[in-house]
Amino acid sequence: MGIRKSPIMSGDRLDHIPSDFIRAQVTRLLRRFSISYRRTDDTTQYIITSRRTGRQVSYAIVFLHDRKAKRLHISKFFPELMRRENSKYLSAACFVLLVQHFSQHMVSEPCHQISLKTQARIFDAFYARLRDFHFEIWKNRGGDTVELRSGCAHLPMDTMMIHSAG
Questions:
Q1: Residue 123 to residues 18, 41, 57, 139: CA-CA distances in angstroms?
Q2: What is the pLDDT of residue 1?
Q3: At residue 14, does pLDDT exceed 50?
């Protein structure tokens, strides 16, 4: 598998307005789920809870601020939304919303890049399709594992509905 380059070089800061599509999906997401977070130093864990049942839906969403590299590293992003009924596009909306929340409220200095490790098939099926980012394969880690990066898109979004879990 070759390195895929996006039209925008990784590390470039991307500033634009989120699509109407993503805004509509974020509205759908927030009607059905509440989002909270726990922060320890530079690490933030996000928790998604069903508004209908009050039960926690996600157990593995962890973002890390790499201060030295001025990068948001997504350690884990498994929101488990695809297992819910009528959930198409909610994972994408969740990703965009959480990146915006983290970049607006969880860092003392701006992040200019996003990085994460995933499987190549997940890159193709999910990250490559996120129109509000420009993910590319940065490193092939062997096997099916790839490391991705994108410029950090700072979007004008209200994220105040995401609250501290205490």
A1: 21, 29, 23, 12
A2: 42
A3: no
* Distance, CA of 63 to CA of 5 (rounded, Å): 24
Q: What tens digit of pLDDT does each residue of 88-116 get?
A: 899 999 999 999 999 888 776 777 899 99
Regarding the domain delimited by 20-152, which CATH topology (the fold level of the hierarchy) does it fall under?
Aminopeptidase (3.40.630)
Mean pLDDT of 58-75: 91
In whole angstroms, give the CA distance from residue 28 to residue 4: 32
Stated pTM of the model: 0.84
Mean pLDDT of the residues in the chain: 84
Q: Which 3-state string (H, E, C) describes 100-154? A: HHHHHHHCCCCCCEEEEEEEHHHHHHCHHHCCCCCCEEEEECCCCEEEEEEECEC
pLDDT surpassing 80 at residue 146: yes
Reference 42, options 108, 118, 104, 115; nearest CA is 108
Longest dimension (CA), the chain: 44
Where are the domains positioned within the chain? 20-152
Both structure tokens of 137: 């394969």
Query: 74 Cβ partners below 8 Å, 6+ apart?
Result: 62, 63, 64, 114, 115, 116
Answer whether 63's CB lies under 8 Å from 44's CB: yes
Question: What is residue 153's predicted lDDT score, i.e. its pLDDT?
Answer: 65
